Amino acid sequence: MSKFYRKLYAVHKWAGLISGIFILLFSITGTLLVFGEELDEGLNEEWREIQQKGDHILSLDSMYKIALAKFPDATAISWVNPESADGHETYEFRAYTNDGNVWTYDLGVVSMNPYTGEVYRAGKLNTLEGGLMNWIYQFHFSFQMGIPGALFTGLFGISLVISALTGLLIYRKHLLRALLFRLPLRKRNFRILNSNWHRTIGVWSSLIAIVIFFTGFWMNLFVYEKETWEKNKHAVKGHVDYSGKFDSLYKAVLKEYPGFEAMAVRMPTQKGKQVMIHGDLPGDGFFFKGENQFAFDPVTGALHHKHLLADMSAVEKLDALAFPLHTGRFGPEWIKVLYVIFGLCPGLLSITGFILWKRKYVN
Q1: Closest to 266 measured CA to CA, from 296, 302, 228, 310
Q2: Which of 72, 93, 194, 293 is deepest in the core (most CB within 10 A)?
Q3: Closest Cα to residue 90, out of 128, 57, 129, 136?
Q4: Where are the domains positioned within the chain?
Q5: CA distance 29 to 326
Q6: What is the pLDDT of residue 130?
């Protein structure tokens, strides 16, 4: 092995070892989150699906007030499952708060009956009061350590990208054999067997692993900005109740843009913030999710601005691909199954890689 490839191997080894346990945690939590919504429904089926319906669904403005009462320090309340507007499921609201501590990631959830306003679940995402899958979601991108945790996850994600790229270079002579499953994967001594499994899994999963971990880092870029840290050092005190126009604004967008499928309705509680409605329009393509944006003044109801996917630049569209590529939320359901399978591979690589290092350097 040349001096260059010895150094490359050292980078590959230490990048994997340093981030190994975190990669394993990313792998496990990430694969659970691919079907996170379905799992949350299954864990809470006694109230997630509405059995007893009332006479009519409450207004969005009324439910905003109920959610705000649970989180009076919220900077915004967001309706995150408008697809449930037919009244067959509970309405899910996300509360964005700020307690002035950068080590706390300030997200909360409120689940309520849209007919009666009964709250089934209300809690921060760093406690199980917010639900197990919501706790896992926040742990996945921040280790439940606030802004510093989100920064760390991005760095560990980049370390895996480095590990994957260097691994492809180191095992370049074995790429074709690994892709064709021609490396012996049974009936060999344990060291060779583990090495061949490491190479085969690494080659098959490297591309999607690079995509998943790089997009995860990309979506967390905001935590590398000074403004993010400064904003989270100042706790929110008090709020403004802007209810009164949310329903009408939401319905106005649906009327003006036939076929519009809302993904989220974000309702402000602080001065200077707009009502934000995100969603999909016919013809957007299955890769893009919720990129059409409408912003309204919460007091006057006037349109502040709109940003449609059709008007976005090529760079903006590339940026918009980060979320669906990271989560597997595009196309048919079998895409999610593939993400589960390949999402587990980095975790397996961290285990086989550690075994390789241990047997070579410790034994």
Answers
A1: 296
A2: 93
A3: 57
A4: 3-34+145-220+331-361, 52-144+228-312
A5: 13
A6: 96
Q: How far is CA 305 from CA 258, 274, 292, 293, 295, in A?
A: 19, 10, 11, 8, 5
How many residues does this entry show for the chain? Answer: 363
pTM of the model: 0.88
Whether 266 contacts 279, CB under 8 Å: no
Which two three-digit tokens encode residue 174?
């074995």
Tell whether the model's pLDDT for residue 72 goes beyond 70: yes
Would you state the pLDDT for residue 54?
Answer: 67
Model confidence at 187, in pLDDT bands (50, 70, 90)?
Answer: low
In the structure encoding, which two tokens stand for residue 10, read together? 């050292």
